[in-house]
């Protein structure tokens, strides 16, 4: 295990009281960036780290373009495709606050992973490309935020190159997702010719000198409106007119609407040139909510000052080839976490020792001695923990489990070399419990040939690569012709047993019976002919 120094900030004294826990919680901002691939998430994360005092040694975020990666590079596939499959956590301090930035995989095939990450944050930054506006993956992720009640801040990126009109972009946000935009800065100069940003609250102009390729912070000069009018001429005039229009339609800042998820503060900038990035950090500190009471399964809120509780939102193995271990990522929901404390694993009632608690920064790890609500703790070799599990101390609590997505891709999986059957079983069990893929089985298919169910086909590649690499069990995958699953019961399973082109399988993780259909027309026909049959949608298409 890599022993690295403990985080330098975010630590309180050992005699922390409940009141201190509350104060520490109020210092935390835990968020994720949601965006379509290529909108600039990695660039923005790097730029944010540049403005902050990074608690871990960060470097760059992805392994893209030869940059060193904060995100783990445990898998060649990740490197080859330039996509981030795993989620990293970055913790830094800014204005004496502790910011936890959770990375989300950019590719849509891993939305389930993203969904879990969004269960662990208090806010999200929706990153838009100024030329492209709302893109499909952004829309999908935004829907998850809306479902989970996560407040969203919007950052319109790439304003340093040609793009759309700011008003048009805001209109798109409002019309397409029904989120009322509340700009807090406004660009002076069209996209591609950005001079700076007006701070809407005080009307002052922040003029930027571009930073070359994110190498250094962009410097800015603050001008009052009169001077800006003289020096910026028509560009200033245009910005003033657009702001007046916004005032007329009442796009002022409304804290309650933001918290309720019906409005979004909007900022403009360029992650690459480091423009508007510090403003985004300020907005996170000033506007985004700190960790608050989290409702348990019955809807009862658990205050942040209550004894420790945490939610496992991700389980991941082999982030580092030299470790080959399994890490459970836990979001602290209440109380103070102290390494070595013995917790209760709510699902089994068993004690769970936290000797190997670590702060995880992709492949960098540091031993963590304590953590507070909003922080993310990595528990190493946590074989019993699954995504959605609750851990607690002193006072029992069960947080609602994280719903799984409806799979749309299915493949029969068998080991290529029969002498590796044992390794294959072990590997499948492990990937199933990590939530990398859903594993379905039936008496007919037997234990040796489970069906893998995925939200996106790239998940199959991850499974294949990991089974071959980590478990020495290369597999053969045969894609099946099913495209949707419905939940059914034993009576439904019996009724569908002889139906052509339909198969009923058991989901191993929870014993749920899933009926697989080739297409929605077949489902519709079966449902029409058998109105009493239980064919319930799974979460994502509910
Ligand atoms: P992602 O993580 O959301 O997929 O996006 P990433 O940061 O990798 O950015 C995608 C591309 O967009 C990169 O260019 C990046 O440099 C560029 N980019 C990000 N922010 C800005 C911005 O504010 N302005 C401009 N002009 N470009 C931006 P690339 O050529 O694909 O990669 P690279 O070789 O620069 O790494």
From TrEMBL:
Record-level Gene Ontology MF annotations: GTP binding; GTPase activity; translation release factor activity, codon nonspecific; translation release factor activity, codon specific
Record bears the keyword Transferase: no
Residue ranges annotated for the Tr-type G domain, each copy included: 26-292
Stretches for region Disordered: 1-25
GO biological process, one term: regulation of translational termination
Keyword list, A-Z: Cytoplasm, GTP-binding, Nucleotide-binding, Protein biosynthesis
Main localization of the protein described in the UniProt heading: cytoplasm
Keyword GTP-binding belongs to the record: yes
Bias kind Polar residues: ranges: 1-19
Purpose of the protein: Increases the formation of ribosomal termination complexes and stimulates activities of RF-1 and RF-2. It binds guanine nucleotides and has strong preference for UGA stop codons. It may interact directly with the ribosome. The stimulation of RF-1 and RF-2 is significantly reduced by GTP and GDP, but not by GMP.
Protein name in the entry: Peptide chain release factor 3
Organism classification: Bacteria, Bacillati, Actinomycetota, Actinomycetes, Pseudonocardiales
